[in-house]
Write a structure and sequence with these properties.
By secondary structure, the protein is α/β, with parallel strands linked by helices. It contains 6 helices and 12 strands. A 7-stranded mixed β-sheet has the order 5-4-3-6-7-12-11, sandwiched between helices. Strands 1, 2, 8, 9 and 10 form a 5-stranded antiparallel β-sheet that branches. The radius of gyration is 17 Å and the shape is globular. About 35% of the residues are buried.
């Protein structure tokens, strides 16, 4: 696995914020959306400022937990305070450094597909399906996640059905039916005038996730609908 963040502008931004060098936010965009600011303080939020989907997932987390794409470690820190054993992983070295400095006891820079330990709960939050990148990789990731589950373990994952982004003013859809799945996006990130290499990012509607889970022997049920076409799902053996 070589696709650890090439320039790690995300990690640089997190380190800047942590080290009181906060002067500007991350800028993100996709092939179907314009530039948008990702405020750095938001990435350091505490439990009471998290979405209801994140809060519900953290309430359901039990046993030993793997926090995939842990970022600044906010989810891991909340669980640690509850006495839960957590391991955070992220492909961003800067994120791992910030998580460690904020007090996450066990955090490692590693790609999900290289993880080998087993856990009772695996968390993939803030569009957890994003790291699958493309629809044709969903099965590969789900099989690997399944291999990381202890008996009676669970995966808590969220995503959004972004079909609404393709609607015109009259409610019609302009999805190209010959193209790849509509939730596959090219994701662009820049920070302080530097641009990260573009990456693939996947938003997965619930039905597509449920079908993919069934094909690899995972049960998939929806736990909660969010406020904007998003949802939290629980996957079990």
């Amino acid at each position: 696995m070589t696709n650890l963040m090439t320039r790690d502008l995300f990690g640089k931004a997190l380190l800047d914020y942590y080290n009181d060098n906060y002067t500007e936010d991350i800028i993100t965009s996709t092939n179907i959306s314009d530039d948008d600011e990702l405020p750095l303080p938001y990435l350091f939020r505490d439990y009471k400022n998290m979405t209801k989907i994140e809060q519900k997932a953290l309430q359901l987390a039990k046993g030993s937990v793997l926090d995939v794409g842990c970022g600044t470690g906010s989810h891991s820190l909340y669980l640690q305070k509850k006495g839960i054993t957590v391991k955070g992983i992220d492909i961003s070295q800067g994120a791992v450094e910030v998580s460690h400095k904020r007090g996450v006891k066990q955090v490692k820079q590693i790609h999900l597909l290289e993880e080998t330990e087993q856990f009772d709960t695996i968390l993939l939050l803030m569009n957890g399906t994003g790291i699958f990148q493309e629809v044709n990789q969903v099965g590969t990731y789900l099989k690997h996640l399944k291999s990381l589950l202890k008996p009676n373990g669970q995966i808590l994952i969220d995503s959004s059905d972004i079909k609404y982004m393709y609607e015109d003013d009259d409610g019609g859809l302009w999805i190209n039916t010959n193209a790849e799945y509509y939730g596959e996006l090219d994701y662009y990130l820049s920070y302080k005038g530097e641009e990260e290499a573009p990456m693939k990012w996947l938003y997965l509607d619930f039905n597509t996730l449920q079908i993919a889970c069934g094909s690899v022997g995972l049960k998939c049920k929806k736990i909660l609908d969010g406020e904007h076409f998003d949802y939290l799902a629980q996957l079990e053996l």
